[in-house]
Amino acid sequence: MPAQLPHVLVLGGGFAGLSTVRTLAGAPARITLVDRRNHHLFQPLLYQVATAGLAAPSIAAPLRQILRGQRNVTVLMDEVAGIDLATRQVRLTRETLDYDYLVVATGATHAYFGHDDWAPFAPGLKSLDDALAIRRRVLTAFERAEQAPDPVRRRALLSFVVIGGGATGVELAGTLAEIARHTLTGEFRRADPRQACVLLVEAGPRLLTAFDPSLSAKAQRQLERLGVQVRLGQAVTGVDADGVRVGNEQIAARTVLWAAGVAASPLGQWLDAPRDRAGRVLVEADLSLPGHPEVLVAGDLASIRCDDRPVPGVAPAAKQMGVHAGRLIAARLRGERAPQPFRYRDAGALATIGRMAAVAQFGRVRFSGLIAWWVWLGAHIWFLIGFRNRMVVMLDWATAYWTQARHARIVTGRGEHEKGD
Amino acid sequence: MPAQLPHVLVLGGGFAGLSTVRTLAGAPARITLVDRRNHHLFQPLLYQVATAGLAAPSIAAPLRQILRGQRNVTVLMDEVAGIDLATRQVRLTRETLDYDYLVVATGATHAYFGHDDWAPFAPGLKSLDDALAIRRRVLTAFERAEQAPDPVRRRALLSFVVIGGGATGVELAGTLAEIARHTLTGEFRRADPRQACVLLVEAGPRLLTAFDPSLSAKAQRQLERLGVQVRLGQAVTGVDADGVRVGNEQIAARTVLWAAGVAASPLGQWLDAPRDRAGRVLVEADLSLPGHPEVLVAGDLASIRCDDRPVPGVAPAAKQMGVHAGRLIAARLRGERAPQPFRYRDAGALATIGRMAAVAQFGRVRFSGLIAWWVWLGAHIWFLIGFRNRMVVMLDWATAYWTQARHARIVTGRGEHEKGD
Lengths: 421, 421
Prior knowledge:
The structure is a homodimer. The first copy, chain A, is of the alpha/beta class. Chain A contains 10 helices and 27 strands. In chain A, strands 5-2-1-9-21-20 form a 6-stranded mixed sheet, covered by helices on one side. In chain A, helix 1 runs parallel beside helix 8 (315-333). The longest helix of chain A is centred in the N-terminal third of the chain and has 19 residues, at 128-146. Chains A and B meet through strand 5, helix 4 and helix 10 of A and strand 5, helix 4 and helix 10 of B.
């Protein structure tokens, strides 16, 4: 590839970054995609890996493999160590790259709202490593309960607290209840997994605030039918090795999962632009960085409003921003300079609660229960990258549905937290 | 279950231990199966997880799930901290168990023949954690090569040395060559994976000593056709972060894999019986511990000769010993005291070399190449526990065969070795 072609540098191989790169297929540019991991991750199904329903490779695909046919792209597995807007350079840990156009799409991570000391006791769910750590913790809790002679300790081992009532929290709590009530039935001789207690704590007044209040109420009823205790309007005031503190009440629980907060990727701090409370970069209407038309921010790292509403931090929004960034750069490469404001098309929202239970909202159309679950299932399998992953996920789920088994119930590795436990 | 039933304690949920437990289904006994992991592992396919062909859960099944229907079994995930033959007690890390019959089937681990300092630089392959660590190392080496400007360093990153020419070494070397030559084709822009060098070093005079010499020669030719350099009769004299020393020659390689030696599980040391050079317990003809008819040793931990030949450390032998131990205990429970010597039925041997290449030996029938590969494929899928695993593995392999892709090319976690690399 001639070196004189303009260089487009894309940071982050998630939905936004990958969409940018794919949109630029065939464009007269050299493209470099940098990600610290070697794979694109289908984040909406990450909770299934955490709860042992899917194997990690089923929801991930190597970035190189996805982009093998796109000859104008170089993929690098590296981390960003600094961005210099003035000299138009990005410093990685192993090399420094110049750019003509920069797309920053490094997403978000979980945030503990100033309580970083809670992190070791309440892991969040953003990467495959997070998911495998949560899987290890959940499965090990049941194993330890089988060997705990003390009923108080056994009860704490069989208590699971999920903090945060958004989509991830609802999905985790619902699946944990299913595992305890159905998957593990008959497999333990001393402890009874059905006595497990799953608690979902949400500080706000309702679950799934991205949905219509009627669907929030339905989701809550469906969760309670699965055996989840839902606590609304109660703030967590402490998390440690023994459990959580909700208001003034201490709840003994050996497994606490964090689904309460996200913060933008720390890369935002190098962009020299105003950021919102969650650290997201306040971008221009065309996703560019104020004062830097050659720098675009896409995905969860970008804070932007459309039709007077904030664009939500969901996969379809990230994809749309990625495509927009790609098209904008392609237009500039052709010499066009007209501003193109980003427009978010709300494709609807879906959240699953458990086996055959979900809520769905497409504009004014709202439904829940079995039909929503089928729609959720179809949509998620469809959007999973790669035909083969679709087949395996379908197979996993089909057999899981009929047998109530979960196919990734494998404990590997050993976390610091579990040692001597 | 009445507490007065005799207690059979089985240590290890591999092929031997699991076979013992299943053979005792319906026996008038309480059975406890202890394993430090929660899963039974189909070890013959472990190299496929290490080389990113299969996801970890595809070759493992939770012991609880396998034994869910066998109501006389309690499964405990715990480690053995001591065995007291006099008081008939086994101390675990979380509780102590009395036994009436003890079956010790804790298998083998890899051994470095007194060079334990080589272990961090040349990981072996015995558990899923080992396999995932090797996968991470192999895939990361190609990633690093893409970013290495120095050709000498790039060459070291693209050099892979497998030490040991048994079945595992042959399988690893063949698959590594396939990955470099086929799977990764077209995915890198700066480095060329086809320039990778895969070296198989064996101290003895031929590969696959468990097979007839004619098949050893065929395996070597098939490997060389795949691009593997085979070095026979050359001993490794050093391993460090820069590579290996073979005789007096230093070979720069960032990835070194150990498939040379196995040593019996350290539990053998508590059994107070003579052991062979590899640490395996020299058992009586009926697999019992000398002087302790109530203690049986099965699988890779047992050293026994049949028809004047040592019983090999392979899965079918472990299964047969496990079944024998179970039948022996069942007979004793019925009051029979006649000694029953163990008899090994050699079911033949199979080793795969790569895509469409394998060697097979069934008594005097020996064949290699494509037919052997199909037999190998069928046998391994068939013996994988669980219908669903069979389906997924078939699907993985069918698509891998047609597309040359590998479906578990996901790097998770980060090893100490890779840090700052």
